[in-house]
Write a structure and sequence with these properties.
By secondary structure, the chain is α/β, with parallel strands linked by helices. It has 9 helices and 9 strands. Helix 1 crosses helix 4. The protein binds magnesium ion.
């Protein structure tokens, strides 16, 4: 069986001060926060999505020896069908997942990242364990978290490489993946809250019995024109800081 989410070297429990923090009492009654990465913890609309698109196309061209137009068609097709281009490359072309993910995300993230201020302090003020769940590769996620100085805020990291069930990749919004993560992390679904910008992923989390926070982000693909709050979304916010302003962020937390 594939190893569960990668443990970080996080050494301490998040702070217990602040409006929201006072709502929890003991660790086992606190919520467990599952955070998405791109367009949830940082803003990809600034520059980084452009780099990912360029890197992804170049990686398909290099791996398959095809021209740019063909590579673009293939990566879009696999992303839509499987939720990650890498899965199509592995399944249909026998490409190594690790090799492809390193080729496609080989750029320096540091000059490309834009995020809200004081993110580490804000995350530490939210009581409860934090787990990162991203369809992006782990080395990229780790680089972004390090640059944002929030790697230590997370107890474990789930990148797309860890999202395998019975030998098959099952990225978000798979309900089976959500149940798999909850089981591996030992989390009661009723205590788990997914914080995400992508509505499909929030719907998957709700089907697995979790509560949901929608980070409404203009950089999210197809975000424009979305209005209102779907019934599978418990709370809608514009930032992590916005979560702290809620007395009880979501039911039961
Ligand atoms: Mg996202």
């Amino acid at each position: 069986m594939q190893a569960p989410g990668i443990r970080t070297k996080r050494a301490r429990v998040p702070g217990m001060s602040g409006t929201v923090a006072n709502s929890g009492t003991t660790a086992d009654r606190q919520p467990v926060w599952l955070f998405d990465l791109d367009n949830t913890l940082h803003d990809t609309s600034h520059k980084i999505f452009g780099e990912i698109n360029i890197g992804m196309t170049a990686a398909v061209m290099d791996s398959l020896g095809v021209d740019e137009a063909t590579a673009n068609i293939l990566r879009t097709k696999y992303w839509k069908r499987y939720g990650a281009t890498m899965i199509g490359m592995v399944r249909h072309h026998g490409i190594s997942a690790d090799e492809f993910l390193h080729k496609s995300h080989s750029f320096d993230v540091r000059p490309l990242i834009r995020a809200e201020r004081g993110l580490a302090a804000k995350l530490n003020r939210l009581p409860g364990r934090k787990v990162l769940v991203t369809n992006a590769p782990l080395h990229y996620a780790r680089a972004v978290l390090k640059h944002l100085r929030i790697l230590r805020c997370f107890d474990s990291l789930w990148g797309v490489e860890q999202m395998r069930i019975h030998g098959h990749y099952r990225p978000k919004p798979s309900v089976a993946l959500m149940r798999h993560i909850l089981a591996h992390e030992g989390i009661d679904p009723r205590r788990a809250i997914l914080v995400e910008d992508t509505l499909d992923n929030l719907r998957g989390a709700r089907c697995a019995g979790m509560r949901t926070v929608h980070v409404f982000h203009p950089g999210t693909p197809f975000a424009h024109g979305k209005s209102g709050r779907p019934d599978f979304v418990d709370l809608r916010v514009n930032s992590v800081g916005h979560l702290l302003l809620q007395k009880r962020p979501v039911r039961g937390s």
